Amino acid sequence: MIRRTLIAALLATASLAAWAQDKVVYHMDDAEAQALKGLRNVKNHLDTDPAAQITVVTHANGVDFLIEGAKDRNGSPYAGPVAALVARGVKFEVCEITLKNRGLKKEQFIQEAEFTPSGVVRLSKLQHQGYAYIKP
Q: For residue 100, is it within any domain?
């Protein structure tokens, strides 16, 4: 009886630890309107909850800030802040359908960018895996 109680307590503790870690997907489809604010939100999220698992999924015009040489409206490159967030465990994913539709090549993107076959499908799958959805 004590052994079963101990095992149940250990399983409950493990479940709570896994549940306590935030899993979040940030959705960006308009870099001009969302990238600066979104990167700031992700940084603030990690500053408050360093253990959070964060994936940024981009498609349509949202991929633009991950293109090599892209700069914000103040003329600052996006590559530095993105690289700093990747170093903290954030994943940045680019929709391959967008690449095809816009005639873009993977080689045009910063090295930190990862690619996913479909941005919207990826958003759906992450939400089904328990990721919270945020659109900055």
A: yes
User: How far is it, in rounded angstroms, from Cα 11 to Cα 8?
Assistant: 5
What strand order describes the sheet that includes 53-61?
113-116, 91-95, 53-61, 23-30, 132-134
Q: Rounded CA gap, 62 and 1, in Å?
A: 56
Encoded tokens for 56: 């940024």
Under the phi-then-psi rule, with left for phi > 0, alpha for psi from -120 to 50, and beta for the rest, what region is 69? left
| Type of residue found at 79 | A
The pLDDT tens digits for 10-33 are 555 544 444 558 999 999 999 999
pTM score: 0.85
Q: Containing domain of residue 40, as a range?
A: 21-134
